[in-house]
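A.,

Following up on our hallway conversation. Structure tokens first:
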């Protein structure tokens, strides 16, 4: 068990399970985009560890960029998404694959879909390490899912609780 600020968290997903899920997503995406040079878009801050491990395993030509959106305060979604850092390159005709750390309500995803629709991309795909199907409220297809999890608050592997926990190599769940 670990303590972050005023909350306690218990072990939930091991580093080994995370590694296996990322390898699975890499293999699927390499198969789907074998003849293209996709651009991977990481959603900061949470996706930095996922993107890093993903790119170390991705053996084909690719590009990477980041966008920063914010939708959480504490342990709950604010239901609104703010764009803090945007993209500064032309993506017209490109295959874009967004790499997320976690998808729960889908509000951030909806904002991303609208943003990339305006860019006239060739393909727009979504990859997420963690997916909370119980919390998902949108009708946007998620193309690559690493691990499906219950609708519980988690930290570690890029995910935080008010700034703490991102550096943990495994995932912890809020203790009930």
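Then the amino acids I'd put at each of the 176 positions:
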């Amino acid at each position: 068990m670990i303590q972050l600020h005023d909350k306690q968290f218990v072990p939930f997903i091991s580093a080994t399970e995370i590694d296996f899920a990322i390898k699975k997503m890499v293999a699927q995406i390499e198969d789907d985009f074998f003849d293209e040079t996709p651009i991977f878009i990481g959603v900061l801050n949470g996706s930095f560890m996922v993107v890093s491990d993903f790119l170390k395993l991705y053996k084909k030509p690719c590009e990477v960029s980041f966008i920063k959106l914010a939708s959480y305060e504490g342990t709950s979604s604010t239901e609104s998404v703010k764009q803090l850092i945007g993209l500064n390159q032309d993506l017209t005709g490109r295959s874009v694959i967004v790499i997320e750390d976690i998808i729960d309500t889908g509000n951030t995803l909806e904002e991303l879909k609208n943003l990339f629709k305006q860019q006239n991309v060739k393909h727009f795909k979504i990859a997420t390490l963690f997916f909370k199907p119980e919390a998902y409220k949108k009708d946007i297809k998620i193309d690559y899912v690493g691990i499906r999890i219950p609708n519980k608050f988690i930290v570690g592997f890029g995910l935080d609780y008010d700034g703490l926990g991102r550096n943990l190599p495994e995932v912890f769940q809020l203790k009930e």
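Residues 96 and 124 are 5 Å apart (CA to CA). Curious whether your intuition agrees with the design.

B.
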